[in-house]
User: Fold this.
Amino acid sequence: MAMLEIKKLELNYGVIKALKGIDMEVNQGEIVTLIGANGAGKSSTLKAISGIEKISGGEILFNGEELSKMNAQDIVKVGVSQVPEGRRIFAGMSVLENLEMGAYLRKDAEEIKESLELVYKHFPILKDRSKQNAATLSGGEQQMLAMGRALMSKPKLLLLDEPSMGLAPILVKSIFSIISDIKEQGTTVLLVEQNARMALSIADRAYVMETGKIVLSGNGKELMDSEEIQKAYLGG
Ligand SMILES: Nc1ncnc2c1ncn2[C@@H]1O[C@H](COP(=O)(O)OP(=O)(O)OP(=O)(O)O)[C@@H](O)[C@H]1O
Ligand SMILES: [Mg+2]
Assistant:
């Protein structure tokens, strides 16, 4: 059984049908990427999984449990954490306080400390900046903080919505390399990206979305070589 099984997922915003019956799976230990043009429904898919948006039909099973019947907090508790599009760190708080907020549903102080050390290992800059007001971080640093905060909940499945958006090329590389490290540390990743080339290069599998539907899926490297993908997303 896959860790995450999405069946015939539909999501409407009023009369707008954002998701029109999506089927996808994420297996434990994978990086799966979801790519597609603006407005295809990528963020809506992640918001449906994390409980930010109510679904209109279908199923979202996480280790066999129906996520769409839970509230967003319980979804974090069972092990699914989302880094939303556009970061959204807590501006009035320090870097460390932001990270601590990510662990607010956890009790064990020792384990929380271990997670903090792991986050600092992935993102050493956050340790250097731990006392600084989060609002004063650069865009790239805020992205790292948002990812670090999500990791503080010790998720089994991490949902990332365009982590490379607005970052300088050198930082894009390092963010993708950290995503691979996060997978190596045992966290499964569902990655939404506009940067199809980078996403496909680190993904085990990929799904391509167009106007609320999955139109293509396969192994990351295979899709990278496919003519359709080259034309539509890789400028080939
Ligand atoms: N809150 C909302 N109310 C109404 N329509 C919405 C809402 N959120 C998204 N939509 C619409 O649903 C569709 C899918 O949006 P979504 O944000 O999921 O796309 P996306 O693939 O993440 O795009 P992008 O790459 O630009 O982030 C779009 O047509 C969008 O206009
Ligand atoms: Mg989006």
Q: What stands out?
A: The CA atoms of residues 7 and 59 lie 5 Å apart. The mean pLDDT is 93. The pocket of magnesium ion (ligand 2) is lined by residues 42-43, 85, 161 (CB under 6 Å).
